[in-house]
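Figure S4 source data
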Amino acid sequence: MDTITHTLFGMTIYGAVDKRQDDKKTKIAMFVSAVGASQIPDSDVISSLWDTEGMYQMWHRGITHSLFMVPIWALLFFLLSIWFLKRKDWRFLWVPLIAVFIHNTADLFNAWGTGYLEPFSSIRVTFGTIPIVDFVIWTIIAIAFFARKLWNKERHLLYRLVWILIIAHVALQTSQGYVLYKQYEDKYEQVALSASFLPWHFSVIGKNEHTVEIFDDALFTSPKLQYTLKSADEADLDTLFTEVPEAKTLYEWSPFVVIVDDKERLGIYDPRFYRNGQSFLFEYIEKQ
């Protein structure tokens, strides 16, 4: 998910905590813990500063987004809270634990995926059923925020309801994506999903041999073929990988790629991000 969504997640986690007996200092610490823990996995962006081998695509959303890093990040925030508050409050362990878990798990559902099982597996886990910016989630949170004055029960119960609605939305959309995926699975050798910004709509990308087809589809509508792409799978990519290390990283990172080998360029791109005649994840070299 994007930075704004993760920030909103942190604020909603903070809102769901019962703070009726807390003083101002504790509330400030709780807010920083909830929002900070919701952002901390993305601290891996600094790895781009020392990336000289084109590995950033793998490093970003890599080990910092691992399921096994969740308790480590939570413990860090817990220790910081002890230092700041000069006392133990176990909420400062489980709130960051929940926040980091939500961050790492939520990122599984969009097309970018994460290294959820690192360091034990380098597999990039991605479902592609939720867009990186989900306006349904934003809308649910916004309605709760503006309706909070009308809520006649305890405020934290309102934000717990928000989480129930978000989980229901993710479950509903993901189940629809799964059904669509299974429908295409028998038709193509390889299939990938990329959720549209329009709720319940998906780009379904299927590959058979050298042909990649991209459909706009939803469970309750007829599929629309958007693009048919040809991949030069027989091309030798050694030169490309040597001159552009990012291309090798992209090749390993993507579920499958389209290979371009024409008179002008040799390159590869991820078809999940193909829009208006090009993919913004495209690595290539110009031919002499």
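Figure S5 source data
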Amino acid sequence: MDAVALVPAAGRGVRLGAGVPKALVRVRGRSLLSRAVRGLLDSGSVSRVVVAAPADQLGPMTREVHEFGDRVHVVPGGGERTDSVRAALEAADRLVSSLGTVLVHDAARAFTPARVIRDVVAAVEHGACAVVPTLPVADTVKRIDSEGVVAETVDRSLLRTVQTPQGFTAEVLREAYGAAEDAATDDAGLVERMGYPVRTVEGDTHALKVTSSFDLAVAEAVLAAEPTSAAELSAARPDVPVRPPEEADSGRNGDVS
């Protein structure tokens, strides 16, 4: 059974300083939102996506995902991330008669590899009620006291950073959000409060979260390292005609094969 993905995209992206909601920030001609949604659908494990957008940005965000047709729906989000996920989940319940696996994915993690998405969905389908992709902590971690003095060096061998998409059975996610009384930045955290086990799968460094201008620069570099399609190049530079690779190669250095 294919999963349904919820994408809370109502954040204003103040730290990024782009002047537009973070989900609408473009990387080489395509918005983070469009890239995140395409990644979910192209994974082969997600059949439908519900985007929770700022109420005053429904039009722009709907246009960003227009290419995906009726597989993507845009609904008004809320003031907090928790409100946006709840709104998207309620919309998904109306759109799909019997929800099975539900993913919650940050639009800011627009370069998450398909492997991570598939692994999360597979883990839920094989019996886990909640799953998160994680990475080992690379840096040394110190715990400090209230005065800013190091109290101890923490054993990082069991510490993990958490990414998205996070996967859940629909029943458990509904229960967690039904009981949530305050804002949360991590959906799995709400499930933990209910006493349910949260399983982990291996994450990926490409699933970086674009939060600052530095992150955006890293995202540009990551994308630049990948082969550029004619469609992406055209979107990024509509003023420059794009030739097929074989045509471009034939005129390189004046040589004609």
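The radius of gyration is 20 Å. Residues 81-95 form the longest helix (15 residues).
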